[in-house]
Amino acid sequence: MNIYDELKKRGFVSQVSDENAVRRMLSEKRITFYVGFDSTARSLHAGSLVPIMAMVHLKRAGHRAIAVIGGGTTLVGDPSGRTEMRKLLDEKTVRLYGEAISSQLDRFLKFDGENAISVNNADWLVPLNYIQFLREIGRHFSVNRMLATEAYRLRLEKGLSFIEFNYQLLQAYDYLVLYQKYGCMLQMGGDDQWGNILAGVDLIRRVEGAQAEALTFPLLMTASGEKMGKTAKGAVWLDASLFSPYEFFQYWINCDDRDVGRFLRLFTLLPLEEIERLEKLKDKEINEAKRILAFETTSLVHGKKAASEAQAASAAAFGISGEKDVEALPTTSISLEKIRLGINAIELFTAVGLTSSRGEAKRLIRQGGLYINEERVTSLEREVNERDLKSSGVILRVGKKKVHRIKAEEK
């Protein structure tokens, strides 16, 4: 199958500048393509897996990947998809975030300088002579056309800063630089980047008289209408120190049944035929597909060892098997002395983040939703003490999905 058609079947393609040209380009020769990642946080999140996996597929098909770390564009701030101006970060923070993101991307793309390359647009944007840039690049941009793009139009009512107004010029210039230096012919990004990417296509045509192409991915929402990669606790980070492999595994295994087939296509490398088999499973059998989704996705992000440990912890915590490996569970260490004195269950569930407040904990107790070592908590006065300690610690659970381990720490 042509790699473009596979990307389309897997759900990666939303808008494309010239479908026939892109399909032909990807099938007839080895091309260079790029995706940009601004350095707005020290980790990418689960939503970032859409562009990452698209890059992985194209690289596996023999094409050259360029990941552009937005060390320069982040200093300006992308207005796309925003209702207000982003907080401007200092240069040191942006640089550190960029290094962390490049390291994360290396796990997927294996930067070797030939088949996959990581570059930072600060290298060519920061040294720009502003007046010269306006004369050489700015003259190719129509203000009327820029204001007609969704990213800017949505912001006009609430206020669009002049620094943000420059963002499209800088992203378009990135594409021109990559075309000139690496022969880059395809830029990919989220649907909210469509106007910016087309601006780059147009700039290459005006400056070089060449035809480059654009492709965007759909902005994902879950079947329940939530933004992909978000939980009640916040973002589903790819950094294990911010969101543990166990929590990451549980995010996928707890996804909506209606999302399983779509997520298998987007976030795993499983053959499409296997995915078609898995998405036909119904009722309790769909849990097999969810476990495969969780294991495959966690393996790609954190490695097979971490995925196996998370799977074992999930099995132990939820009684899927007799395995007792709970080391991968989210864990809080509490002094043995404090446990011996007794800790109110309501306080403990709230302190470790299993419930958002004491009020929620009380409500869940009345509804029969809190468990200590698989024993339902029935009293608001219930305490966790030394009698609850097992060799693995104390296992706290809310409903069927949220688990936390308490480990006794001797001083």
Walk me through this protein's architecture.
With 411 residues, the chain is an alpha/beta fold. The chain folds into three domains: 3-217, Rossmann fold, CATH 3.40.50.620; 230-318, Tyrosyl-Transfer RNA Synthetase (Orthogonal Bundle); 331-409, Structural Genomics Hypothetical 15.5 Kd Protein In mrcA-pckA Intergenic Region, Chain A (Roll), CATH 3.10.290. Helices cover 45% and strands 16% of the residues. The chain contains 19 helices and 15 strands. It has helices at residues 3-10, 19-28, 49-60, 91-109, 122-125, 130-136, 143-148, 150-156, 162-165, 167-182, 194-208, 245-253, 260-267, 272-278, 286-302, 304-318, 336-341, 345-351, 358-367; strands spanning 15-16, 32-38, 64-70, 116-120, 184-190, 213-217, 230-231, 234-235, 331-335, 343-344, 370-372, 375-376, 383-384, 394-398, 402-409. The protein has a six-stranded mixed sheet with strand order 1-6-5-2-3-4, sandwiched between helices. Strands 9-15-14-11-12 form a five-stranded mixed sheet. Helix 12 crosses helix 16, helix 13 (260-267) packs parallel to helix 15 (286-302) and helix 15 runs antiparallel to helix 16 (304-318). The longest helix has 19 residues, at 91-109. It is elongated and about 75 Å long. Residues 320-324 have low confidence and may be disordered.
